[in-house]
Amino acid sequence: MNAVTNMTPQYSISDLAKEFDLTTRAIRFYEDRALLDPERQGTKRLYSRKDRARVKLIVRGKKLGFSLAEIHDLIELYENAADEVPQLERYYDKLSEHRRKLESQRQEIEQTIIELRVAEHECLATLRSKGIDRERS
Fold first, then answer.
1. Confidence (pLDDT) at 14
2. Domains of the chain by start residue, with CATH
3. Distance of alpha carbon 12 from its chain centroid, rounded?
4. Residue 21, φ and ψ in degrees, nearest 5
């Protein structure tokens, strides 16, 4: 973290990249998506505490499987809310919706795995009927 004359903590792009295990390219991408708005000093970017908090939320949101558009909406709601109850309710709704979607995908994946095992078994049986023992080779 680098201190500037007004004593407001500011971070370089490398500081944030290192802290959150991101590439500088990813951070610039988040800027392009209007998720971050660093101060500029020539070609140097200086990120505020607010930007750092946003990066933390972005990383967490991505780990939870949210799209950048959803993360943007949640950040905007949080920053523009007069109190945090609406933000928490929206966040809870998004979490619940995403969990249900993942559970449904998990069921579909489990069913596909069962179907693959059946197809493998049938294929092995057909190979054996042709004199090929694939399980030993």
1. 95
2. 1-73 (1.10.1660.10)
3. 22
4. 55, 50
